[in-house]
Amino acid sequence: MEHGFWHARWAEGRIGFHEGTANALLKRHLGALQLGSGQRVFLPLCGKTRDIGWLLEQRFRVAGAELSRTAVEQLFDELGQTPEITQAGPLERFAASGAEIYVGDIFDLEPATLGPVDAVFDRAALVALPEEMRQRYAAHLEALTRGAPQLLITFEYDQSAMSGPPFNVSAEEVQRLYGDSMSPRLLERVEVPGGLKGQCPAQEVAWVLGG
Ligand SMILES: C[S@@+](CC[C@H](N)C(=O)[O-])C[C@H]1O[C@@H](n2cnc3c(N)ncnc32)[C@H](O)[C@@H]1O
């Protein structure tokens, strides 16, 4: 999607993707990443997800990348934190007690700027991107995080019944994107209650990659 699409969504508050509480599959399957207290989890395309607050409560450190400054300002407001804001190359870095969010295009974020991460949590990031961007995104994410293990959440539904985002990302595509290097393993498949956007039967699928 074009950057303008996402900036408009945040400006107009059209953020139906934002969940009111931490993602249930994250809570159930974080253990698959075998992390220890204080380790650093990276959330690509993080929005203002409540997953960040939950991970901080579990005593992890969190890094994120998000295009929208509005989203990141709201995130820190909702965390009750005043971030320190610095320039990090072409991106801005918002940081406060255990959370560092890079504001800008994730494709401009470099491994040396992000620093080491111990795991990745991708919810509504891969599936937010159109098919022609997903190969580039997966390769960039793997390089950016130096192949860190990943908990990935996808949606599966009939793409002809609804246009994305979120887009349908099939099991075959997960294998195509990450199969060679990360050995994706399916953890759980659950029905989306009432269907995606209340109109289309869909399943939410949890994968662990490289774990
Ligand atoms: C569907 S939302 C998901 C947000 C979050 N992961 C969640 O679960 O609520 C996708 C987010 O990706 C951001 N985004 C889109 N393209 C991006 C890019 N190239 N770099 C960084 N963020 C991007 C959008 O602004 C939007 O907040």
Please, what is the CATH homologous superfamily?
A: Vaccinia Virus protein VP39
Return residue spans where pLDDT drops below 50 for at least 5 consecutive residues: none
Q: How many individual domains?
A: 1
| Average of per-residue pLDDT values | 96
SSE string, helices as H and strands as E: HHEHEHEEEHEHEHEE
- Report the major sheet: 9 strands, mixed
List how many beta strands DSSP finds: 9
Instruction: Determine and state the CATH class.
Output: Alpha Beta
User: Roughly what percent helix?
Assistant: 25-40%
Question: Which strand order do you get reading across the main beta sheet?
Answer: 3-4-5-2-1-6-7-9-8
CATH architecture: 3-Layer(aba) Sandwich
Family: Belongs to the class I-like SAM-binding methyltransferase superfamily. TPMT family.
Enzyme class: transferase
Binding site for S-adenosyl-L-methionine: 10, 45, 66, 123
Protein name: Thiopurine S-methyltransferase
Keywords:
single chain; 211 residues; alpha/beta; globular; binds S-adenosylmethionine; SAM-dependent_MTases_sf; methyltransferase; Thiopur_S-MeTfrase_Se/Te_detox; transferase
Description:
This protein has helices spanning 3-11, 24-29, 50-57, 69-79, 111-114, 131-144, 171-182; strands spanning 40-44, 61-66, 84-88, 91-96, 99-103, 119-123, 150-156, 185-191, 203-209. Strand 6 (119-123), helix 6 (131-144) and strand 7 form a beta-alpha-beta unit. The protein is globular. The protein is an alpha/beta fold. The mean pLDDT is 96. The chain has a single domain (3-13, 22-209), classed as Vaccinia Virus protein VP39 (Rossmann fold), CATH 3.40.50.150. A nine-stranded mixed beta sheet has the order 3-4-5-2-1-6-7-9-8, with helices on both faces. S-adenosylmethionine (SAM) binds next to strand 2.
